[in-house]
Amino acid sequence: MNAVTVASAILLAVAAGAGAWSVRYVLAREFMPYHAQLVGLDWRDIPRRYQLVTLGMLKMVGAGLLALGAGIAWLVAPFSRGEPWASWAIPSLVCTRGFVSTYVTVALRRVDPGASTNVITSCSGVVLALAALALAHGSDDMRTPRPAVGGHDEKSGVDGAVHHGRERPARADRPRRIRFHADVRSHLK
Question: Domain of 168?
């Protein structure tokens, strides 16, 4: 297995982990045990309105985790093809969600150092995803030269634009693209 395949598998594992945590939060019928530690109250002792607000927030956290997992899973395919934008999109998602989550869990632990907040879980997703990206980018698999659009690549000798791994014909040989706005305006006159 090459490094990109291993990195893709790690990213899919991170996505699955986010999905699993999302199910836990979305299906929650009461707050988590560490919430009870922090609040110092049992779920039954909390007024109904506060319970509803808390459950709503837990479901929003779950939805965010589901979106994170789905986003990472969708980005694995372009990442494994070596598309550079995916290598920036993945850490953008992971770090944004992961750093905020880690900050909150650490802040909650400061309230009660004995509370078993998910600090390690929050950090592990970020660390694993960034390690997977570093693994892939440290390998020769991600260093395949790509010619610039419309330019010339000295190593491969390819002239012109490259589209999905194959050369596109020169502009004169391509069919005319419809210029939507200009064509619509001419028909409306």
Answer: 149-189
pTM: 0.71
Residues 92 and 43 in one domain: yes
Q: Are residues 72 and 102 in the same domain?
A: yes
% of the chain surpassing 70 pLDDT: 74
Closest CA to 100 of 90, 89, 112, 92: 92
CA gap 175, 118 in Å, rounded: 56
Enter the tokens of residue 13.
């594992």
At position 44, the amino acid (one-letter code) is R
My answer on whether 155 and 114 are in the same domain is no
Same domain? For 9 and 64 the reply is yes
CA dihedral 154, 155, 157, 162 (to 10 degrees): -100
46 and 131 share a domain? yes
Residues 110-121: pLDDT tens digits? 888 888 888 888
What is the C-alpha separation between 24 and 122, in angstroms, rounded? 15
- The residues, any chain, with a CB within 8 Å of residue 12's CB and separated by 6 or more, are 72, 73, 76
